[in-house]
Amino acid sequence: MFAPGHITLGVMFPIESFEGDAPTMRDQEQLACRAEELGFAALWVRDVPLRDPQVSDLGQVFDPWVYLGWIAAHTSTIALATTSLILPLRHPLHTAKAAASLDQLSKGRLVLGTSIGERTNEFPAFGIDPDEREALFRENFGVIRAVMCREYPMLRSSYGALDGSADCIPKPIGTLPMLVSGSCQQTLAWIAHEADGWISYPRPLSIQAKVAASWRAAVAELDPSVFKPFAQSFHVDLATDPDAPATPLHFGLRGGRNVICHFLEELRDAGVHHVILNFRYAQRDARSLVEEFGAHILPRLSDASPMLHVAAHGR
Fold this sequence. Notes:
There is one protein chain. By secondary structure, the chain is α/β, with parallel strands linked by helices. The protein has a single domain (8-301), classed as Luciferase-like domain (TIM Barrel), CATH 3.20.20.30. The chain has eight helices and twelve strands. The strands form two sheets. An eight-stranded parallel beta barrel has the order 1-2-3-4-7-8-9-12, surrounded by seven helices. β1 (8-12), α1 and β2 (42-45) form a beta-alpha-beta unit. α2 runs parallel beside α3, α5 (188-194) crosses α6 and α6 (205-222) packs parallel to α7 (257-270). The longest helix is centred in the last third of the chain and has 18 residues, at 205-222.
């Protein structure tokens, strides 16, 4: 899914364009299977616990763990990823058990993107002070990592303690990649040290190149031999004319496939390793977009060289 000098494409659920905050969620299983067949690298879900009419975004509506389990049962090789799970709203042991369970049942396909949570009106409903998000995120990240990597660990957190007499099972298959979305109110040095990769936001190309370079520098300062990927989201629509010039789209672009492919190649050259495609604002049917990306763009971005994966079991 990730490799130095390469760029891969994933697709965000819901795989459809829609108005308002509620997608139809029709035919998502078939679209997921088709994305896998065409060579997309990952399927991504959001974590939106509560409806906020002011935000107008419900993600894929369904709980991320339940929905990824459903999609895992319909697919076999494509990576299953979260962007991103809101760590402060969940007990870290529940998160670790759910993540490892899904990883085992999907045969090692989970990539765990994590977040601090941006909708502060959700936190009181869960009894969490939003001002504590920074510390809770950092603490939860460490607990989840520890209980997935170690047997019978001894640790203490704001949520409780393990004294070495009990263990969180199952464990994931190998090392489960944990990514951070945005800054999560942490320093870049902390993210580079603790996370296996960074999911950032779309920016003008020249600025994104600088952000990606700063990420590589932060990782290299810790260990020059280590590769940690840089990913971003991207709202996109394809014009019917393959050479139609690009026009601005909310957090993305609309344009002909040749223009969009060239832009993705520029992102690759700027240091982006994975792009999460979002079709929400597209004028065309999402199925036709999946097909066109698969037939005309993915082959141009692919390379015959073997990929160096973040983890050793297929991610």
